[in-house]
């Protein structure tokens, strides 16, 4: 496997010069690989490695999101639901380690050869996250019975969240900010990490309709509105439904509270900790917690920009009946 890892790295360096390039959200360009915009080092390299090295298991759970659609929140929810009989709330790993440690992103693991190879011997069931669009998922995640939870969020909210996230990182690395209108253009023309955003959603929506036991499609906004209902449905999909006794004793409420924005944002690990994305590049955990609201985009987008986003959503999602 070590040899395969090295070979996949070589493949990546050979493919890179052949791809379209555009200005990215951080200091590097983005490249277009099979229709998807990716950062060459942060994400494309890991994806190619996974294509050659990752083998899904039937009891894996894979959380898939576009960046800023609610990854951190749903990592916490899935981890808490699936492990609720293992940990007490007072010493829960989410409180000490945070969601990104409890549920690693496969793209991040694959930056480190040892971590990537250790995945093969990790205990079952593995809970993993990824931002990959459906067509780019490693073959065995499609052919095996592993379950996929996909989280969708209003593209206006994703854009606003993404703009704040990347501008914080740019400031930290002394890079000039991207003017807001340029960023809107980038997002709306698909130039965003794992974009086009709308195609990412459509890929999973289609599979969730064809195979509802394979892909569970959840909306950030629905979960904000009715977290208890969402958590119960999610637990059922994951094969860990709440018993009547658990419901009566308030187990669902406890999980909702443990994973709430208000709980997570105040934890030391999320205020002070760092997510090491690559051996050289770390991101402050606190950047993953901004407002945690459904409609904060209203405070940032003009009527004209809202119209632009909604027209694209109508055009892409209207015909298939996906409301947004
Ligand atoms: P905002 O920037 O709109 O506040 P991701 O985890 O995919 O990077 O997404 C980050 C977004 O999810 C941010 O949105 C962040 O505040 C929000 N978020 C993080 N934890 C959350 C939680 N427990 N509940 C609701 N939203 C949360």
Element-by-element helix/strand order: HEEEHEHHHHHEHEHHHEHHHHHHEEH
The end-to-end span amounts to: 43 Å
Largest sheet: number of strands, sense, barrel closure:
4 strands, parallel
Strand percent estimate = 5-15%
Alpha-beta classification: alpha/beta
Mean pLDDT: 95
Task: Determine the number of helices (DSSP H or I, runs of at least 4 residues).
Answer: 18
Strand order of the largest sheet: 5-4-6-7
Q: Which stretches of 5+ consecutive residues score pLDDT under 50?
A: none
Q: Specify Rg, calculated over alpha carbons.
A: 19 Å
The overall strand count is 9
Structural notes for this entry:
The chain is of the alpha/beta class. It has 18 helices and nine strands. The chain has a four-stranded parallel beta sheet, with helices on both faces. A three-stranded antiparallel beta sheet has the order 1-2-3. The model has no long low-confidence stretch (mean pLDDT 95). The structure holds adenosine-3'-5'-diphosphate (A3P).
Summarize the model shown.
This protein is of the alpha/beta class and 324 residues long. The protein has 18 helices and nine strands. 49% of the residues lie in helices and 12% in strands.
């Amino acid at each position: 496997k070590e040899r395969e890892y090295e070979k996949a790295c070589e493949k990546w360096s050979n493919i890179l010069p052949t791809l379209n390039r555009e200005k990215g959200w951080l200091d590097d360009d983005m490249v277009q690989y099979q229709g998807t915009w990716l950062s060459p080092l942060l994400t494309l390299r890991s994806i190619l490695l996974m294509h050659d090295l990752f083998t899904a298991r039937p009891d894996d759970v894979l959380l898939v999101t576009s960046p800023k659609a609610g990854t951190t929140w749903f990592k916490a929810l899935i981890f808490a639901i699936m492990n609720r009989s293992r940990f007490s709330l007072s010493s829960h790993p989410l409180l000490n380690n945070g969601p990104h440690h409890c549920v690693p992103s496969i793209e991040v693991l694959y930056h480190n050869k040892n971590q990537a190879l250790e995945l093969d011997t990790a205990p079952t069931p593995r809970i993993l996250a990824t931002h990959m669009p459906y067509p780019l998922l490693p073959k065995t995640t499609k052919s095996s019975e592993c379950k996929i939870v996909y989280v969708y969020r209003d593209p206006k909210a994703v854009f606003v969240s993404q703009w704040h996230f990347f501008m914080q990182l740019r400031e930290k690395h002394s890079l000039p900010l991207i003017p807001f209108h340029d960023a809107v253009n980038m997002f709306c023309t698909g130039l965003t990490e794992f974009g086009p955003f709308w195609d990412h959603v459509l890929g999973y929506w289609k599979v969730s309709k064809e195979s509802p036991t394979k892909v569970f499609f959840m909306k950030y906004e629905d979960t904000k509105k009715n977290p208890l209902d969402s958590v119960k449905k999610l637990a059922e999909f994951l094969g860990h439904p709440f018993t009547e006794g658990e419901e009566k004793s308030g187990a669902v409420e406890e999980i909702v509270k443990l994973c709430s924005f208000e709980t997570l944002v105040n934890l030391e690990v999320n205020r002070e900790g760092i997510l090491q994305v690559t051996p050289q590049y770390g991101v402050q955990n606190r950047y993953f917690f901004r407002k945690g609201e459904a409609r904060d985009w209203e405070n940032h987008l003009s009527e004209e920009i809202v119209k632009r986003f909604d027209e694209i959503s109508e055009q892409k999602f209207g015909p298939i009946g996906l409301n947004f």
